[in-house]
Design goal:
mainly alpha; globular; 2 domains
């Protein structure tokens, strides 16, 4: 094992791979500081570019981004009071309260160091899990691997969001997107609806960018303006270092909580962080300080969230079960490079496993150091309108998506899935299960087909299958029992109460439209799959037969609960239609003119920049986008009516 660890370290020290790792870290830090984006958007942006690198460099780039997201989002949470991600909500509560008291450096110092410890703890667990879990993984066969994937999907559906029906429907929708295109077990092209573009199925890059990146960009563009009006000064790190040392054992305990949260597929950093934050409250006599600027709350939450996002890779690497959305994208990248997590990876690719460990450890330490260096400068830039950031962000998404097939269908699909992600967000359908389902569709179909070919249906009675299946059944029964006991008690959204935020609003019209669209799509797909070969119908049946009743139930609820809503402040549909119009304009007249118009709209109408600075900044962004096209050896889209690019 020691020789493989040294070999992997030597491979990572290659200048190209180190550069890729640091480039991923920079992207992860930027996206960590943008509220609502985080690790999923960071790895989604990088995904189309990693395939121009060798496998070690590409995976190191993704790991660099994942490892520092929860370190850099501490900056946004403390300075702006806006959580960089849901898992940073406790940091925003305590850290921003301290920042308003003039103690921003103290809060940031503890946050950065706790995140570093959490990342190193996650790397250590990865290192230990390789030799310990290897023999266990070798005992698993296709039925058990299928059940592990199913457990991860159900956990993602039930533990993310507050409505189990919406979570399961979202997972079914992701599986449906994943089975579009060629069938793995027979010569069928499924659900292409006569479109040549769909013959190869959907691209992971486009699905991830659309559901998360575009959907969040729409919301932030619609909000307009800056997040903070008063820049906050940052100086004097010494007190933060002393606070970290005083709370070192709390940070270690919180990191262990985060590690166990990462082991359970799809629990995610949000749940682990709140558990660790609760532990910090329970473990002190001075509970009244929490919510008003308690440093222990920052230490616990930051130690937990970074440990979780790294230990998410343990079930991903050992069982092909993504621990979270970012891990799901990393799993897809592994498949693309020809690596298949599980027995094959442990026995044949130990160097890759140790490369992952070294990448995570190095990124955690260097990322914390960079955050210390850049925060004083960033604190002066808290009034930048998001439109200025959105301009290059959306165009980079377009360039990244267009690399999938270099057809206009890539751009249409990016914004169509962005519209779907936006509707899911406002209808309170969790998007993480959809992404996890999309990534797992292909391996689940292979495991399901092989299990039936080898064992018939007798595999359902195998002891391993029954044990793994109990991970689904027992929590569901416990939840049902808990619901029965508490059905008359009011449910309080504790996170919203602590943050003093309103409860998430379910837009009734959006809920109705989404449930109707999904119901129609599932019903039509069931009718179409009757013409497939029996082997090609296995996975679609597993997806659509439960998916349609769920969608119809949600449609019934949406109709029953529907009340007309008029919210003058809800202007996000305007931004959505503007982006959809941008896609149509690219198809009609080419890339350049619509892009210039989009830049002008975002910079002058949304960000309200002055003419000369806005024109210079827009020209720079436009030039960088064309440089990306050139470096990626691709041509910009050409207009169907003009022939112009």
């Amino acid at each position: 094992m020691f020789e493989h660890a040294l070999s992997a370290l030597d491979a990572l020290m290659d200048p190209t791979r180190l550069l890729a790792l640091f480039a991923g870290m920079m992207v992860g830090m930027v996206f960590g500081m943008l509220p609502g984006l985080g690790g999923v958007a960071a790895v989604s942006i990088l995904l189309p570019f990693i395939y121009y690198l060798d496998d070690f460099s590409g995976l190191a780039m993704l790991l660099g981004a994942v490892s520092v997201v929860y370190t850099s989002d501490t900056i946004t949470s403390v300075l702006l009071g806006a959580p960089g991600s849901p898992a940073s909500a406790p940091t925003a509560i305590e850290g921003h309260a301290l920042a308003k008291q003039g103690q921003a450096a103290r809060a940031l110092g503890v946050g950065f160091l706790s995140s570093m410890v959490g990342g190193l703890m996650g790397a250590l667990i990865l290192l230990v899990a390789i030799p310990v879990a290897g023999p266990i993984v070798l005992l698993l066969s296709t039925p058990e691997l299928f059940m592990f994937a199913l457990v991860g999907l159900v956990f993602a559906s039930s533990m993310i969001g507050k409505d189990l029906a919406k979570g399961l429907a979202s997972a079914c929708l992701g599986l449906f997107l994943g089975v579009v295109g060629p069938a793995s077990a027979a010569a069928d092209f499924r659900f292409t609806f006569g479109q040549v573009y769909l013959l190869d199925g959907f691209s992971l890059t486009i699905v991830a960018l659309g559901l998360f990146g575009v959907a969040e960009a729409i919301s932030m563009l619609a909000a307009g303006g800056g997040i903070s009006n008063i820049p906050i000064a940052v100086s004097n790190w010494g007190e933060g270092f002393r606070d970290f040392w005083r709370n070192k054992w709390l940070v270690l305990r919180a990191s262990i909580i985060g590690v166990f949260g990462g082991f359970v597929p799809a629990v995610g950093a949000s749940a682990s962080t709140w558990v660790a934050y609760g532990h910090a409250i329970r473990s002190t006599k001075h509970k009244s300080k929490f919510g008003k600027g308690e440093i222990r709350g920052i230490a616990a939450s930051e130690g937990a969230n970074n440990a979780t996002v790294i230990s998410d890779l343990v079930p991903t690497l050992l069982f092909s079960v993504p621990g979270g959305p970012a891990a799901a994208i990393f799993l897809g990248a592994l498949f693309s490079f020809g690596y298949y997590p599980g027995p094959r990876m442990i026995t044949q690719n130990p160097d890759l496993m140790f490369l992952i460990v070294w990448s995570v450890a190095l990124s955690s330490v260097v990322g914390a150091a960079i955050c210390f260096a850049i925060t004083p400068t960033l604190a002066k830039l808290t009034r930048i309108p998001f439109g200025i950031i959105a301009a290059p962000l959306i165009l980079i998404m377009v360039v990244g998506a267009y690399q999938s097939t270099s057809t206009i269908g890539d751009i249409f699909m990016l914004f169509a899935l962005g519209a779907l992600g936006w509707m899911m967000k406002h209808a309170e359908w969790p998007r993480a299960p959809a992404l996890v389902g999309f990534v797992l569709a292909s391996p689940m179909e292979q495991y399901f087909w092989l299990a039936n070919q080898i064992h018939g249906w007798s595999w359902l009675a195998r002891p391993g299958v029954l044990i793994i299946g109990s991970f689904i059944v027992i929590p569901l029964l416990l939840n049902a029992w808990r619901w029965w006991r508490e059905r008359k008690a009011p449910v309080v959204d504790e996170a919203a109460e602590v943050l003093n935020l309103p409860h998430a609003e379910d837009h009734k019209t959006v809920s109705l439209i989404l449930a109707a669209l999904v119901s129609i799509a599932f019903a039509y797909a069931i009718w179409e799959m009757t013409g497939f070969n029996p082997s090609s119908r296995l996975m679609p049946s597993l997806t659509l037969l439960p998916g349609l009743p769920l969608a119809l139930w949600l449609l019934f609820r949406a109709v029953r609960d529907y009340t007309p809503q008029r919210d003058p402040a809800f202007n996000e549909p305007t931004v959505l239609f503007a982006l959809l119009g941008y896609a149509v304009a690219i198809w009609a007249i080419g890339f350049s003119i619509p892009t210039i118009a989009l830049l002008a709209w975002m910079l002058f109408a949304r960000a309200r920049m002055r003419l000369v600075p806005g024109a210079i900044y827009g020209a720079i962004v436009f030039a960088v986008v064309w440089l990306l096209f050139d470096q990626l050896r691709g041509d910009a889209p050409v207009g169907a009516f003009t022939g112009l690019s």
